[in-house]
Here is the input.
Amino acid sequence: MTPEELLQRYAAGERGFRGITLTQPTQGRPNLSGVNLSGADLSESMLQRVDFSSANLSSVKLSQAKLPNCILNRANLRDALLRGAMLDQSSLHGADLEGADLKDASIAECDLSESNLERADFRDANLTKASLLNTNVRNTNFTGAILNDLHPRNIKLRGAIGAEQTWT
Here is the structure.
């Protein structure tokens, strides 16, 4: 499916896109920057290298989706369902993930700097080598998360669950 087809179908009221594969243009990456896909179901989809910069993805379902090398800078992912999603080497700089469910997700080598992770659920997630510079993690659950080679400078840890022992 092309990004244009996805947007046309969404504009027509369709929300179920489970298991799609976004096709890549001949040059560059699929571009969905600034779009509104709030509430869409993209679970189990292949969304490799998609540019979702500043997109509204609030309450979107991305469980088990493959999103490696995506750009999600400043994207709204509030209350998104990302259980088991694979976001390795993606950029989420300045993204809003408040209340998002990332249980069992792979977020290795991601840039989460300056993001809002308040009340997000990272239980059993893999955050190996993730960047959390100036990130808000208040009331965020990191129980069982893999935090290898994590450099959490300038993090507000007040209220974070399951992380204090690892980051002291």
